[in-house]
Design goal:
- The protein has 261 residues and is α/β, with parallel strands linked by helices.
- The chain is built from nine helices and ten strands.
- The protein has helices spanning 27-37, 52-65, 79-93, 113-125, 138-146, 168-177, 192-200, 210-213, 218-238; strands spanning 6-8, 11-13, 17-20, 41-45, 68-72, 97-100, 129-134, 151-154, 182-186, 205-208.
- Strand 7, helix 5 (138-146) and strand 8 form a beta-alpha-beta unit.
- Helix 1 (27-37) runs parallel beside helix 9 (218-238).
């Protein structure tokens, strides 16, 4: 990607694009899109796999990618449900990483901040490395970080909406206040430009699923997002020029000779 890595619980990750494995038109398109993304990490949901035969085929496809698996607790509505599913994921995938999702409202699928903090504390005490999916609330992010969540995943917008960064001020403030945390924008992104904006704010990575899987051509969109996170990271490292209220010519005229016809 952009030539530098970032850390998730001490493990160096080269790609700043994490990719999901749901909603693709076919297993082949899913595999091709994941490969095209250049991602190092793919997210999976244990509870979405109902059929044993289909589940075996799916896991084999994911395994064949060679990527790091990040299981999630998608669809959970209570602390007990999320903790139980996380423990099942640890057994199935042999990893102590868990993307903690705990829904508080079925209308916009907003994470439950109170239950999320409680579940995070329980899982951390049980040896999990928790990556909580949360809203862009500074105080919540601070509480989660203080509880031991070294990685935070605030949303850009409600999941699956494709609206991009609805509150860049909130996201920027979280980045400025939690300088040591690994921050990943998760959910709500719809265009490569949205991912670029997140990286320009100093976020370490983005996690995408619907924006790629739901595109007319997921493989091509995957390539677009791969290029976008590169562009955003380069822009952040380069430090943007300051904004100005007045126009300023790129070619100064002071001291230049004026030629008459």
């Amino acid at each position: 990607m952009s030539g530098d890595s970032f850390s998730i619980y001490g493990e160096q990750i080269n790609s700043r694009l994490l990719i999901g494995s749901a909603l693709y038109p076919s297993p082949k398109i899913m595999n091709d899109a994941i490969v095209a993304s250049g991602a190092d990490i793919v997210t999976v949901s244990l509870r979405r796999q109902q059929s044993a035969a289909a589940g075996d085929d799916f896991w084999q496809l994911i395994k064949n990618t060679g990527l790091k698996i990040l299981p999630n607790t998608a669809g959970c509505h209570s602390v007990k449900e999320a903790v139980t599913l996380a423990k099942m994921c640890r057994e199935v995938f042999a990893t102590d990483w868990i993307k903690l999702e705990l829904i508080g409202d079925d209308y916009n699928l907003q994470p439950d901040p109170f239950a999320l903090l409680q579940a995070s504390k329980q899982l951390i005490a049980d040896g999990f490395k928790v990556l909580p999916y949360c809203t862009d609330d500074l105080v919540l992010c601070q509480r989660l970080y203080d509880a031991g969540c070294e990685v935070l995943m605030p949303w850009g917008a409600p999941i699956g909406t494709g609206k991009g960064l609805l509150n860049s001020y909130n996201l920027k403030t979280i980045r400025q206040r939690l300088t040591q945390a690994t921050l990943i924008v998760d959910a709500g992104l719809g265009l490569p430009s949205h991912a670029c904006q997140a990286l320009e704010l100093g976020y370490d990575a983005v996690l995408l699923n619907s924006a790629i899987a739901g595109a007319g051509c997921p493989v091509t969109m995957s390539r677009g997002f791969k290029a976008a996170v590169d562009a955003g990271r380069f822009a952040y490292k380069a430090k943007a020029m300051p904004e100005k209220d007045l126009a300023a010519p790129s070619t100064p005229t002071m001291g230049m000779p004026f030629w008459h016809q």
